[in-house]
Amino acid sequence: MGFSEVMDNQIDKVSERDLFNFVFFYELLSEGKKEFLNNNNEKYGQIRFYKKLKENLMIGVDNKIKENLAERISAYKKKAKNYKTLSYGF
Amino acid sequence: MNKFIEALFRISDTYVRYRYYQINKILKKGSLSVEDIAIEAIVPLFYQGKDKSNFVITDKVKEWTPKIEYEEAALFFLNKIIAKRVEQYISSLLRQSDPFFSRILDAVNYLIRTQSYKKTYYLGKIYIIENDEVISSEVIDENTFNVLPSSLFIDKKNLLFKIMTYIKSETDYFPAILCNELVLRLKQLNFSGFKKHDESLDDIEEIELDEIIKAGLKSTINKLKNSYFDTNKLTEKKYTVFKKALTDMAEDLKNGGVSPGLYKYLQEYQPDMSVEKYHNDYHNILEYLLRTLKTNIAEELRVN
Q: B242 burial class (0-12, 13-18, 19+ CB within 10 angstroms)?
């Protein structure tokens, strides 16, 4: 059995990482996985969850939560410096 | 660093909010919010690490395999690490707030150890799966798990086998059982008498939860009377308020756990009591009595 046949046989074996990448890093999935997950999107509650996570990562944090973070985590400074951020807000 | 911590908070908050319906029900009655839990879950990641100039999370990055080299791997790692922290924190909350939960979980762990199963973290939850398996398709969610037929939960020795077989034959889900939800379901179904001797399910007897709660509450109210009312530390009116609050706490222990905001239990029967007055005069007493109540219930479970 060739490599492509092995991949085809495993296409419905979807890992947690595949589901994560489907939402966050779509371009990293193989064409077979993309097609499989596009056709079976509703079967995976995990995809709905990761979409919600992606949305939430784009939302800012309100002042009350900032105060609580500063109170509980010493590394969190009340007045933040501006750092270069990555795609998902940090 | 702030942006990074805020992102971790957002991940944690999403897990608590969308993966823990059960804990949300418990929280509705308490003063601990979803946001509080989300923060507490990530706090230990910022304790001092092995190298004192680093944090625990730095150690975890170094230990993670495969090595984290790209943004995709970094975000996936953070997602996994936060999911695990949230699960650990919520499990400890459930254990602390509910002696029944703790006891049943010990017995379920015994089944996992002695039969061909293992536990695995998946999307912020602990699942029980068969040895040598890796989750590779859709897993059962909390709502669906909670409506599985009650008959599957009766044969305690074959509990995991029966549920696993049902999931395989009657559903399209990957054969995996939600661990904490199993414990809560067992408790809800009142199959929760576990003898302490060897943690095994061989000695399981069905014990009436109500009887255990009643006996534990009675001993605690005796303690309240002897230590606080008879010694004039509490007036008769306050004694009655405490008795009612303890009765509500006992009922909540039966139904899922005491909510962390103890003030509300007293306020229910004395609405004019301020938070400040409560903290100055009554919080320590109520906290002590709650510990006593849990100990008494655990003792009742042990002897039954």
A: buried
Amino acid at B87: E
Structure confidence by residue, pLDDT tens digits, A9-42: 455 578 888 999 999 999 999 999 999 999 988 8
- Residue B32: how many CB atoms within 10 A of its CB? 16
Mean pLDDT, all residues of chain A: 78
**∠ at Cα B109 (B140, B116), nearest 5°?**
75
Give the β-pairing of B117-122 and B125-130.
antiparallel
Residue of B1, B5, B10 with shortest CB distance to A56: B10
For residue B119, the SS3 value is strand
Per DSSP, the three-state class of B229 is helix
CA distance B28 to B93: 15
Specify the pTM.
0.69
Q: What is d(CA B255, CA B269) in angstroms, rounded to the nearest whole number?
A: 20
Size of chain B in residues: 304
Q: Give, as one character, the DSSP assignment of residue B268.
A: T
Q: Is the CB of B46 less than 8 angstroms away from the CB of A74?
A: yes
B123–A contact, CB cutoff 8 A: yes
DSSP 8-state assignment for residue B55: B
Token reading at B12: 């944690």
Residue B32: phi, psi to the nearest 5?
A: -85, 115
Alpha-helical (H) ranges within A2-80 are 3-9, 16-24, 31-39, 45-57, 63-72
Contact B23, B37 (CB under 8 A): yes
- With 0-12 / 13-18 / 19 or more C-beta atoms within 10 angstroms meaning exposed / middle / buried, residue A89 is middle
Check: CB of residue B174 under 8 Å from CB of residue B138.
Answer: yes
Closest CA to A68 of B37, B84, B86: B37
Q: Chain B partners of A29 at a C-beta cutoff of 8 Å?
A: none
Determine whether the interchain pair B9/A69 forms a contact, defined as Cβ–Cβ distance below 8 Å: yes
Please indicate if any CB of chain A lies within 8 Å of the CB of B40: yes
- The span from the CA of B251 to the CA of B222, in Å, is 18
